[in-house]
Amino acid sequence: MDYNENRRPDPFMTWFRQQDSKGFFQSDYERVLAILIDARFDQRTTAEKALQNTITVVRYGALKKLVKSEELSLLVPKANVTAEKWTKLFCDALPAMNELSARVVAQEHWNSTDLLDLMRGELHVPYLGIKTARLAVRWIHELVPRIKIKMSTYRIPIDSLVYRVCARLGIIDPTIDKYSGEGSPADEKIQRFVESILPDRPWLLDEALWSTGRQPSKGGHCYPSQPNCNGCLFDKTCEKNLLDVDPAKMGIQLSTALRRSKSSCTKKMITEKQAAFARFVNELKQEGIKGKEYRDKIRRWQIESEDSSAR
Predict the structure, then answer these.
(1) Confidence (pTM)
(2) Same-domain status, 245 and 187
């Protein structure tokens, strides 16, 4: 494909290759860990901001030690999360990323599906979702030559950029093909299209699709409304559907599904927490604990409960 011969690389890939050429990474373990760190940051934000966070934590030694949130300058947060919380959440997740990195490099040959299952199951890293995990798999394949990954089973990550481009190309119809996560109608249609075009190298279409959907300042063409088709990679083959509206806003239902799921989970957690607190208070009463000792134990329970919820 012409795009992949002359593509504008992801900023993380550019930074990674520059550092690797200087001998910055001491092992494949550090290479994989750097990839996982940036992939985890690369959600509900720009690739540039994700890389900014990666550079920050790497400079603080995150590839070699478990850094603490009080040691870090505040990270650039993703949408709807404070910088303080996003910084703490990274530090809390770093041990899991260390464990996952060690497991990945312990094996030289992987099937992309098996590697993704490992990331999403047994060694799940908090806030490394399906989209970012798939991104990490592709980066490991392209940036860590010793680790051989069979990519014919690779499924490209779907976000608003990929959805929008695919809708305008006519691959999906946003009035019918809704996206609400893996296995949803839009996801299945897009994956089948990619398999039909590049059955042995499906990952090559990944960056071509999302980069086309970026804002013009980032080199894209197919932005939310009134896209600039001149010079677009897909100009000659695109059906140019829905140029006046953003197809992603019509067809992506993930945010609504997540809000409902989070609301349900929150109610359940509150109920469980209330029941646990009632049991704890009853235990204190049975032991005859009163006064300052009672208040101290109640306060300690509340603090420990909040810490557990944050994890």
Answers:
(1) 0.64
(2) yes
